[in-house]
Amino acid sequence: MMKTHSLPRLRLSDTQFGILLALPALALFAAITIYPLFSSMYQGLLEKSLLWPGQEFVGTENIRAVLDDDFMPLLRTTLTFTLYATLLPFVIGFAVALILNTSMRGQGLLRSLFLLPWLIPTVVVSFLWMWIFNANYGVLNGLLRQTGLIAENINWLGHRERAMFAVIIAKSWNTFPWMAVMLLAGLQTIPRELNEAAAIDGAGRARIFRHITIPQLRGIIGTVLLLSFIWNFQHFEMLYVMTTGGPAKATTTFSVAVYKTAFQKFDLGEAGAIGILWMALLSVIVALYLKFGTDNE
Amino acid sequence: MTVSRISETSTMAASQRQKLLDRAVLYLSFAVVAVFAFFPIYWMLVTSLTPANQVFRFPPRLFPASLTLDHYQAFFDNPTLLRYFRNSVLVSTATAVGSILISTYAAYSFSKFRYAGRRALMFLILSAQMFPQALLLIALYLMFDELGLLNSYWSMILAFTTFTLPLCIWMLKSYFDTIPDDLIEAAKVDGAGQFQIIHRILMPLAAPALVSTTLFAFIRGWNDYIYALTLAGPHKMTLPPGLVLTYIGEFQTSWPNLMASSFIVSLPIVIAFLFMQRYIAGGLVAGAVKG
To answer: What's the pTM?
Structure first.
């Protein structure tokens, strides 16, 4: 490659230059994503604390301890949150997409406005809903009391099931605009003639929806649901800000457990062990996504 | 003749009725989702503008009796919050700049060059979007501690830049794919250097994609909570964890102040996004479908 020594500059072939261009990205990626992923999981095989130096290799001891103790409750909580926080915004988002797909006045503006809940930083979304669900002065209790639906103020965030409900509502509010955008994009690719032909043939709205809209959107529906499932499976911020995983671990998912074990209990071994199990489950879901989700581009 | 005419008018009346019913259903369902979507935002604004003595009252009033800007004033009078704000601007801007440079080079490489392992690398980088960040944090904390980068801007900038790479590279690559190779060849014939081609030809042509990727990277830095909370330390901390530390967990959270601060944190993102929306919507959909 360096045939002309008289030239002071290093002469690279096109291919070498191409690889060189990708190097900074690859270096960062290796150092700040790949290495930490495996290193974090490796902590799960050690007896190690943030509080004192030193470590000891203990093999699968931590993993077995987690499996015996916290694993099933964590899995149940994570799946509950993930499932509802995926399906609820999907339903709302689909409704919004269908509404925006009709010829309504002020459509462009509406489409932008509906994005707002998605644009707001998740920490702010958490604050907003904490305030709405506030037990003493919250507007939700206020409205429910004034309409006579409840007689006493409800402590939403301090009760196991209600706390989970509140976090799911908040997360759904944050996610549904994204679902709506994706589904609307899908709806707009359905040829108008298809719907019109079906209507001429006497198909009602419900039948058109079932036999044309849904099949035409199958690809995008699958992608949206799977992606959202994967993201919710690792969601941290709203669960931690709104309830810090409580009350009594009722909203402690894998992500909250890993964080609290590592940075509040300072037990890196146990945190890593939870991480290994979490990552194993996640890989299965991601594999499903890669198999089915990317088939339909 | 008459019979058919009558049935014709009656079907017309029926379809008229059907249309009215459709409209009614449409507007009703619209009203329901609109209340769900917009009431919380309205409530944030109203609370942030209501005098403190009227906020802590039950039942709350949907329309406050009087309004005040005191709670916004309180944000700008608070040196700690202003420091968090400055940190947020600095970290997010640095993330955006770093991310855009690095992902432009990588996207150009993936789009216009052919070498062994290229596809596998792209795939690996894309799949990184799925890695749980709470887990990566453990090793990153240890690593940054070792390097003496804890409690610095660098730990956040490095982490956020890396986390934005998958989507940024993908968005830019798909844009570069639409730029014909002939254009690059022609520039080469004219004697343009490799970096000149990138900076003078490719980047201006890809301006819309660059705008949306820059914005995406900025937002990633601006919105982050968990990394800023853990790596930054109290002095370099950005607004999201800063607000939690300042307001949450007090005996009595000052909700009007927190709502005013929340509005201030959200505003830059919302304005920027709505402004750039037409570039983003396309990239958003495409990135997620392929991503």
So the answer is: 0.88
